[in-house]
Amino acid sequence: MESPNQKRIDLIFSNYTSSKYKVLERTLQRPPDELISELMDSGLKGRGNVGFPTGMKWKFARREDAGTKYVICNANESETGTFKDREILELVPRKVLSGMAICGYCIGSKKGIIYLRHEYSYLKEHLQNEISIFQEFVKQFNHDFTIEIFSGSGSYVSGEESSLIESIEGFRAEPRNKPPFPVIKGLYGCPTVVNNVETFATAQVIFRIGAEEFLKLGTSYSSGSKLFSISGDTKNPGIHELELGTTIEDVVKEFGDKNIKSVQVGGASGYCIPQKLFAETVIGYEGLTTGGSMIFFNNSRSMYKVLHEYLRFFAEESCGLCTPCRVGTQQLLLGIEAVKRGEMPVGYIDVLKKLALSMKISSKCGLGQSVANPFISILDNFKEEILY
């Protein structure tokens, strides 16, 4: 039974097939400034973990005086437990391509790039076929905008927008110093908007139904709906679109298996929420952003093993550019193993926490900065499983 505080939504995967690219054709007849204003009015925030206002990003890029600008769709989707973007690209690629084209129209860009995760190479032919159809329709609308696919190199850090840009330019995927931000100086030094797959698809939905209708969903700070990749100990795994503002308790009641003791929200870089906090933890930008991933763990799972795998993942995926992340990820992994084996005293846990917090403020990009999220939340809530 559905919780009264939870609504099932079907905006992203809905079969809106009255005419191919009809929404795009209608939208391109409106002034760019009007479209950006509607996007800002809708309150749409990036559907990744950062949650920057999408309309604001487009506005910043539009006001830049440059002959060349770029629109990049981030389809690197490498956060653990997340598989929603793959499904969007497979089932409703038109919504993504339309969102990119509208963004190009708004900011004055003629070139779009889909940065496709290496493991999603099997989707390339499918997407290329859809892009060919898209290009024919765009010509009919007298809109000069082309899209190409760039195959990523398979690294986690490529999901960070400046690392992604470095990769497209042919360099090692490493984060850039900011500012300047990509909307000012991005791909090849030109103003660039980078949004993920779900964000572009949601933008297309907003231009179809209108900002007012979109605002009927969610909360005052977290408007609309969101796709959730639900996995782990669940009776109904898969991708589900839910209204923002729902609680972890609502989600667990709907999808959880028996005896769920924790939910990892936001993948490896997110937070581990214990059962005692389910009712008060809100999914949204005023609470926890999910990045699209929710992994359920029941009482049969070892939270030490969960933490160990996350730390091993971070240590392996660190690009090695900055010392806090390169060294810190290794030391956290070695440290937690030493405590578990009894080679280090229990008090060493506090030393490791301080290291994780130092990484949060001194690492160059989101990978090192986010290690503290799962590390501290698991240690604080499941300390006995780590120590004994």
Give a nutshell description of this structure.
By secondary structure, the protein is α/β, with parallel strands linked by helices. It is 43% helix and 14% strand. The strands form two sheets. Strands 6-5-9-7-8 form a five-stranded mixed beta sheet. Strands 3-2-1-4 form a four-stranded parallel beta sheet, sandwiched between helices.
Model description:
With 388 residues, this protein is of the alpha/beta class. It folds into three domains: 22-212, Rossmann fold; 225-298, Roll (Ubiquitin-like (UB roll)), CATH 3.10.20; 303-387, NADH-ubiquinone oxidoreductase 51kDa subunit, iron-sulphur binding domain (de novo design (two linked rop proteins)), CATH 1.20.1440.230. 43% of the residues lie in helices and 14% in strands. The chain is built from 16 helices and nine strands. The model is unreliable at 1-7 (pLDDT under 50).
CATH H-level superfamily of the largest domain = NADH-ubiquinone oxidoreductase 51kDa subunit
Shape category: globular
What is the CA-CA span between the terminal residues? Answer: 38 Å
CATH class of the largest domain: Alpha Beta
Fraction in helix: 40-55%
Uncertain runs are 1-7
Task: Kindly list the characteristics that best describe this protein.
single chain; 388 residues; alpha/beta; Rossmann fold; Ubiquitin-like (UB roll); de novo design (two linked rop proteins); 3 domains; five-stranded mixed sheet; four-stranded parallel sheet; 16 helices; globular
